[in-house]
Design a protein that fits this description.
By secondary structure, the chain is of the alpha+beta class. The chain is built from six helices and two strands, in the order αββααααα. The longest helix is centred in the N-terminal third of the chain and has 11 residues.
Length: 76
C-alpha cells in the first residue's frame, strides 16, 4: 500500500518542473541541497550526486548576484 510519502516521492521524481529541497545553514545565510529531482538535473545539466550535501552558493555561485539567495532567505 502506498503512503503519502511514497506519493510525494513519486511526484517529486516524475514532475517536469525543476525541484530541489534545501536545509537552512549558517543561521539562514545559506542553504544545503537535500534533494534534486531529475527535471532539475536535466535543466541544470548537473547530477543529483554533484549537489547533494553542498551549499547552494558553492554549486551555483551566481545565485547571490542574481538575487535568488535573497529570495531563499525571505521564504525561510
Amino acid at each position: 500500500m502506498n503512503t503519502s510519502t511514497d506519493y510525494f516521492r513519486e511526484l517529486f521524481e516524475m514532475i517536469s518542473t525543476c525541484l530541489a529541497l534545501y536545509r537552512v545553514v549558517d543561521n539562514g545565510q545559506n542553504f544545503v541541497f537535500l534533494d534534486f529531482n531529475p527535471a532539475a538535473e536535466k535543466v541544470e545539466k548537473i547530477s543529483k550526486s554533484e549537489v547533494l550535501g553542498k551549499k547552494v552558493t558553492d554549486v551555483f555561485p551566481g545565485v547571490v548576484e542574481f538575487g535568488l539567495l535573497d529570495v531563499f532567505k525571505r521564504v525561510w
